[in-house]
Fold this sequence. Notes:
Protein name: Putative intracellular protease/amidase
Distance between the termini: 29 Å
GO molecular function, one term: glyoxalase III activity
Keywords: Hydrolase, Protease, Signal
Number of helices: 9
Signal peptide: 1-22
Strand order of the largest sheet: 5-4-1-6-7-11-10
Pfam families: ThiJ_like
Low-confidence stretches: 1-20
CATH superfamily: Class I glutamine amidotransferase (GATase) domain
Radius of gyration: 17 Å
Amino acid sequence: MKFLRSLAIALALGASTISAQAGNVLIVLSDSDRLDLKDGKVFETGFYLNELMQPVQALLDAGHEITFATPKGTAPSVDRTSIDKMYFGGDEAAMKASEARLAKLNILSRETSPVISLAGVEQIGYDHFDAVYVPGGHAPMQDLLVSSELGRLLTHFHELGKTTALACHGPIALLSTLADAPGFVAAFETQATAKVQSDWIYAGYKLTVFSNREEEMAKGLLKGGEMKFYPQDALLKAGGEFSQAEVPFASHVVVDRELITGQNPASALAVAQELLRRLK
C-alpha cells in the first residue's frame, strides 16, 4: 500500500508530462533524526530541505515517478537548520514553495507516510528502478553508511551501471557496500583511521562529498560538539579519489561512470540536472 501511495503522490504532484520515457527513481533517506557526536553529545539533524526538494521537484516536473525509502521504513526528518532561504540562493519564495511541496508529499508523517523500507524495495525488485538518489544532511552518517540493505541495493546498481546520485553528506552511504562497513566505520569513530580497503566497488572512482574545509567552517552548527570523523577522510581511505570546488560551499559535481556526487547544498540543482540528463 505504501508503494502505491508513493506512486500516487508522483502522479498527483508532478506529472502532467508523463510519457513512455518516464523513469522510476528511488530516493533513499535516513531513518535517523540525530547524529551521535564525540563525548556522548548529540546533534539533531535529518535531510536538508533543498537537497531533497530541488531534485524531487525537477524529477516530478519532468514526469518521473518517485519512491521514498528509509532502511526501516520510518518517516524521515528534515534538518530544521536547512529551512533557510540561503540554501535557495536567497529566494524565500522558492524555499516556501519547497516547504509546501514537502508537506504535500506527506513523507514526514509518522502515521501516513508513504515511505517504505529497503526490505520493501528489495521485494518490489531493484530492476523496477532506473536511478537512486541519496540527499544529504548529517543523518546519513548515522545509519546509511552501515546499512547492509542499502549496500545490496547500491551493489546491484553498480553491477548494472545504473545511475547512482548522492549529494553533500549523502555520498557517505557508499561505504555501505564495503565487506565490513560496520567495522570500517567503528575504526574511524574510535581511532580516526581504518585499514585501507582494496575490494571496495567504488575504489578508484572520482567523487566528492562535503569537504573537510567545509566541515571546519560549519562547526558552529554542532553547538560545541565534534563529529567522530569527516566523510572526506573516510571515502579517501576506502579508495575514492576525492575532488572539491576551489571555493568552499560553491557548487561542485563529479560524474564517474554510474556515479554522480555533489559536494554541498549548493550542488543539489546541478546533481538534479545530471540525473535528469541520465534518465533521458
